[in-house]
UniProtKB/TrEMBL annotation, chains A, B:
Residues 2-56 form the HTH lacI-type domain. This is LacI family DNA-binding transcriptional regulator. The keyword Transcription applies. Pfam families: LacI, Peripla_BP_3. Keywords: DNA-binding, Repressor, Transcription, Transcription regulation. The keyword Repressor applies. GO terms for molecular function: DNA-binding transcription factor activity; transcription cis-regulatory region binding. InterPro entries: HTH_LacI (IPR000843), LacI/GalR-like_sensor (IPR046335), Lambda_DNA-bd_dom_sf (IPR010982), Peripla_BP_I (IPR028082).
Length: 345, 345
DNA sequence: CTGAAAGCGCTAACAC
DNA sequence: GTGTTAGCGCTTTCAG
C-alpha cells in the first residue's frame, strides 16, 4: 500500500506537501510538484478514502436502501440515483433488504420489516452517509418508518405515512386518464378495463384516471366493463373472455402482461387488434414494443424518479427546509399500433 | 455524533475501556460494562466504520462492478453476491458502469470501456476493497482487462481473455442439450431451432447442445430447420412462419421471447401448442410461467452464480492459490406444458 | 480490571 | 514554498 508518507520519503518532502500537491492546492514549486506527481504515479498511489473521510468529516456518500433489488422497477430507479450522484460527485452505498426472498413475498409492512429497516439505517449511518433514498418494490403507503434517523431521507416509489418525509412517485392517475382519452378520441365508447387487485395503489389510481376520462366525455361508467385481474397474463386472458362478449370495442389493461393475455384471446378468436378491438397496456415492459401490433402503453419515469429523489435529497442535505410532500412525475405515453379507430356504429 | 470518547466521559472511564466493552472484549466489571452499554444506547451511539476500518486495516468489503445494473440478469446476480456476503459478514460496495445508457449499447469491449473499468477499479481500491466481482451484462469473452489490480477478482456471466482470472457462468450447452433431449424423448424428430445472432456466445453454446442431442440420437441435423432471430418476439414469429411449413413437430426457441413469437404464430394459425406443435424456450422470463400453455424452459442459476463467485473470491482473499478456470453452473430445467408427445407418424 | 499512549492515512492551521 | 503539529474515531499493546 503506497501512502502519502511513502511518497513524502521518496521525494524528500513532508506528507503535508504531498497532500497539497496531490489535491491541487499548490504550495510547492513546479519542479517538486511534478516530482511528487510522478512518484505517486510510479508507486501506484491510491488515496485511502477511509482516512480522507475520517479526516474531512463528511463522506460525500448517500445510501440507497432497496426493498428488493430483483423486482423489476428497482434497478432502473437505482440507476437514476446513481447517475445523478455521479453527476454531482456523490458516492452511493447500496443496502438491499431482499424482502422477496427473505419473506417469500409475505411481508407487507410488519414490525419485522421495521427491524430490518432499522438495522439497515443503522448500518448506513455507520458509514456516515449524508442522506438516504428508500426505494419501494411497489408503490404504497409505508406504515413502519425508521425509528431513528439523523440524516434526510426521501422515498421513491412509495410514500411514508403522514407524509413525514418527501416522496417521489409517478402519476398513475394521469397516465391512465391519457390512455383512456386516447381511446375515446379514436371514437371508442365501450371501453373495458382490466384492473389489478383492488388493494393495489396502482389499481386505484389508474381506475380513477380511467373514470375521469369517461366522465369528462359524458360516457356512462358501466361497472360490467370492469374486470379484476392479478397482473398476470392469464388473468388478462380470462378478463378478455368476459369483456369481449360484453361488447367492448377497446380494452385498457392495467399492465402489459394482462394486455398480452388480451392479445392471446384475440389471436385465438380471430380478432384483429387495432381493427376489431383496441388495446392499451401499462408499464412499457420489453414485450410491449415487440408484440404485433406493438402495444400502446405508458412508460414509467423510473430514471427520473431516481434523479428527482437525488435532487430533493441533496437540497435537504444542504439544509433546505424539507418539504414533505409527494412529487408525482408524469409517465410517458407511448402511442403505438394497438389502438385503432372505432368502427362500430 | 456520539463517539466512544463522549461515552467514556459520561461513564468516567477511558475510551479504551468503552471500546473493549462495546466489542465484547471483556476487560471491565459487569457493573461498569452495563453502564457503558446503557449510555451508548441512550446516546444513540453509532460506531464510525471509517475510523474502525482505518485502524483495523481491513475493510471486510468486496466490490461489485456491474456492466449495467438495468440489464435483466444483473440484479439477480448482484442479489446472490449480496446474500452470500451477508452470510459471511462481508460488506459490498456497488459500482455500476451503466454501459448501456452511456454508450447506447455500442461499446463492445473497446479501449474506452477499459478506461472506465480502470477508473472503477481504482475507485474500489480507494475504498480498500479486498476483492472484486465483475458482472457482465451478457456472457462473452472479455478482451480488455484491468490494467492494474491488487486484489483478487472473479468474473460472473462473462470470462476473461486467457483465463487470467476465475469466472463463473452457466452451462448453456448442457441446458440446450437437456431441452432438446426432452423433445426427442417425447418422440420428436423434426425439431426446429430458433437461434439468436450467430456472434452470440449463448447462441453458439445452445446450438452445440442442440446438435449434440440430435447426434446422440441418430437424428440427422437438417440446416433447413435452423433459423436465426435477434432474441425478439417478432423474430420468433418470423422464424415460426418458415419452420412450421417446413414440417417441424417441435421448435426450440433459444429464448422465451422468441418462443412467445412462436406462440403467437400458432394462435393465429389455429395450431395448438403441445398438441399440434411443441415449443421450448430459454431463460425462464416471467412470461414463460404465465403463458398458456406454460412454457417449458431453462432457468438460469443467477443467484448461484453470485454465490459461487463470492465463495471463489473469499477463498482467493484467504490466500488460496487462484485456479483461473471457468466454472459452469447447471441451469434448472423447468418442464411445463408446452412439450407434448409427437403425434405425427 | 483499567488507562495511557501510539498510530491507522490523511488534512488543515499555522510556523518558519 | 515547505514543514510541524495536531487530530478525525477507533483499537491495541502494555503498564499499572
Amino acid at each position: 500500500m503506497t501512502t502519502i508518507k511513502k511518497i513524502a520519503e521518496c521525494t524528500h518532502v513532508s506528507a503535508a506537501t504531498v497532500s497539497n500537491v496531490l489535491n491541487g492546492k499548490g504550495g510547492a514549486s513546479e519542479a517538486k510538484a511534478r516530482e511528487i506527481r510522478e512518484t505517486a504515479e510510479r508507486l501506484h498511489y491510491t488515496p485511502n478514502l477511509l482516512a480522507k473521510r475520517l479526516k474531512n468529516q463528511h463522506s460525500n456518500t448517500i445510501g440507497i436502501i432497496t426493498e428488493d433489488l430483483t423486482v423489476f422497477n428497482t434497478p432502473e430507479i437505482v440507476d437514476g440515483v446513481d447517475a445523478a450522484c455521479e453527476a454531482m460527485g456523490l458516492e452511493i452505498i447500496l443496502g438491499n433488504m431482499r424482502l422477496y426472498k427473505r419473506y417469500n413475498n409475505d411481508f407487507t409492512d410488519t414490525q419485522r420489516h421495521q427491524q430490518l429497516l432499522d438495522k439497515m439505517i443503522e448500518h448506513m449511518l455507520s458509514h456516515q452517509v449524508e442522506g438516504i433514498v428508500y426505494i419501494g418494490y411497489h408503490c404504497r403507503k409505508l406504515v413502519y418508518l425508521p425509528s431513528r434517523i439523523t440524516v434526510p431521507i426521501v422515498y421513491a416509489y412509495c410514500y411514508p405515512l403522514n407524509q413525514k418525509y418527501p416522496a417521489v412517485i409517478y402519476d398513475d392517475e394521469k397516465a391512465a386518464y391519457d390512455l383512456t382519452m386516447l381511446m375515446i378520441q379514436k371514437g371508442h365508447r365501450q371501453i373495458g378495463a382490466i384492473c389489478g387487485p383492488l388493494d393495489s395503489f396502482h389499481t386505484l389510481e389508474r381506475l380513477k384516471g380511467y373514470q375521469r376520462a369517461l366522465y369528462e366525455n359524458g360516457i356512462l361508467f358501466n361497472p360490467q366493463l370492469l374486470q379484476y385481474g392479478d397482473w398476470s397474463r392469464s388473468s388478462g386472458f380470462a378478463a378478455a373472455e368476459l369483456l369481449v362478449p360484453a361488447g367492448v370495442t377497446a380494452i385498457f389493461a392495467f399492465n402489459d402482461e394482462m394486455a398480452c393475455g388480451v392479445y392471446e384471446y384475440c389471436a385465438r378468436n380471430s380478432l384483429q387488434i387495432a381493427k376489431d378491438i383496441s388495446v392499451a397496456g401499462f408499464d412499457n415492459r420489453d414485450i410491449s414494443a415487440d408484440c404485433t401490433p406493438s402495444l400502446t402503453t405508458a412508460k414509467l419515469p423510473l430514471e427520473e424518479i431516481g434523479q428527482t429523489c437525488t435532487r430533493l435529497l441533496t437540497s435537504a442535505i444542504d439544509g433546505e427546509p424539507p418539504k414533505s410532500e409527494i412529487t408525482r412525475l408524469p409517465c410517458i405515453l407511448l402511442e403505438r399500433e394497438s389502438i385503432g379507430p372505432c368502427t362500430t356504429v
